[in-house]
Amino acid sequence: MDTTPASASASTAASPDGQTGQPTVVVCMGMAGAGKTTFMQRIASHQFGKKETPYIINLDPAVTYSPFQSNIDIRDSVNYKKVMEEYNLGPNGGIMTSLNLFATKVDQVLGLLEKRAAPDPEDPSRKPMKHVLVDTPGQIEAFVWSASGTIFLDSLASSFPTVIAYVVDTPRANSTSTFMSNMLYACSILYKTKLPMIIVFNKTDVQDPSFVKEWMTDFDAFQAALDKEQSNNAFGGQDGVGSGYMGSLINSMSLMLEEFYSHLSVVNVSALEGSGIDDFFEAVKEKADEFRRDYQPELDRRREAREADKKKQREKELDKMMSGMSMGGTASKTAVGDIDVEENDMEPLSPDEDSDDELDDEQDREGLQARYEASMLHQEDSVSADASFAKYLHTQQG
Ligand SMILES: Nc1nc2c(ncn2[C@@H]2O[C@H](COP(=O)(O)OP(=O)(O)OP(=O)(O)O)[C@@H](O)[C@H]2O)c(=O)[nH]1
């Protein structure tokens, strides 16, 4: 599905200071209980403390208590409990269906964001927002692997630099196997979303995070930890068979993940105590630059490819139509000619007149082709005008 909004090119628009002047969207993800909501609250209050009012979006329909006020909250539009009742769904199905229902409003969400990101003519002193913070459901799969999650992420990324903050529960990642599971999960999110990622090791007030850096940069250190766990029979299995298999699997995966690690930013924070938040925003800045440098051209390339495909398709249809017309033209001319001759009592055409007619036919064809192309162009103009108008309406409504 093409979710590229009309404003896609806005992401490269530069402000007078040479910066793009656009807010960066930070999408917080993480397994249930990793501390996403606490982290969201912490980064939001950090921004308020710097007099940089963030724009907050909550996409978790099932959250019962939110310690911060959201500018856009899925719960204002969709009643998760009613969705479960009406569609006879369990919790995960309820979240996915609520997200699907809310995805129909993605244009409105973008309209509101764009309105808020643009200067306000009525209040020229208003500071442009720097960050849009998005909270997502703890059931990551319901968001990342659902159509609606893709629609939200693609739409945001086609309008603003967008980065993923993947929050990890550090105390629960201190064994090689849980660490590896977390990293594989993060890797699959990166692979699916194709967006720059920051891994946020949270709860560092209760777990020293130094092992993280060691395991991610030093293969021997990871190997040593793995051997230690294996010798304690941490992976189970009889006569060491299970542990041997797990050990070598984790070992090969850690080699495979080396490339993944090299593309990540890693920060250690305590959402509860507030440490590491400056480092986090430094990483966001870096990743936003990376988005503009590496991801934006790819997004633009994909959009251009889609447009080239559409153009090719139109040309194909035009060719089909023209060849249909030339066949139909001959057939109908014969038929009409026959009737004309009979009904109007006209003389049959002389060979000379016939060849003149072929020439006229050719000119007609060229003229028709030109008119068709012109009308297609006009249609394109009116489509983009419609899109701009729709966008304008959204911003007016917002
Ligand atoms: N010690 C400590 N506890 C934390 C930290 N961050 C979050 N917690 C605790 O971890 C628990 C889960 O935190 P939440 O913020 O609700 O986690 P979540 O990822 O939003 O959870 P879901 O809403 O279930 O997806 C809570 O008891 C928090 O107080 C931290 O930095 N340090």
Number of helices: 13
**Tally of distinct domains:** 2
| Ligand names | guanosine-5'-triphosphate
- What is the beta-strand fraction? 5-15%
In whole angstroms, the N-to-C terminal distance is 25 Å
CATH architect. name of the largest domain:
3-Layer(aba) Sandwich
Please tally the β strands and state the result: 7
Following the backbone from N to C, one meets helices and strands in this order, namely EHEEHHHHEHHEHEHHHEHH
Residue-averaged pLDDT: 76
Reading side by side through the largest sheet, how are the strands ordered?
Answer: 3-2-4-1-5-6-7
CATH third-level topology of the largest domain: Rossmann fold
Overall helicity? 55-70%
Could you outline the blueprint of secondary structure elements for this entry?
Elements: E1 24-30, H1 36-49, E2 55-58, E3 72-73, H2 74-77, H3 80-87, H4 91-103, H5 106-117, E4 131-135, H6 140-144, H7 147-159, E5 162-169, H8 176-193, E6 197-202, H9 210-217, H10 219-231, H11 241-261, E7 265-268, H12 277-344, H13 351-397
Parallel strand pairs: 1-4, 1-5, 2-3, 2-4, 5-6, 6-7
Helix pairs in contact: 3-4, 4-7, 5-7, 5-13, 8-11, 9-10, 10-11
Family: Belongs to the GPN-loop GTPase family.
Organism: Chaetomium fimeti
Biased composition (Low complexity): 1-16
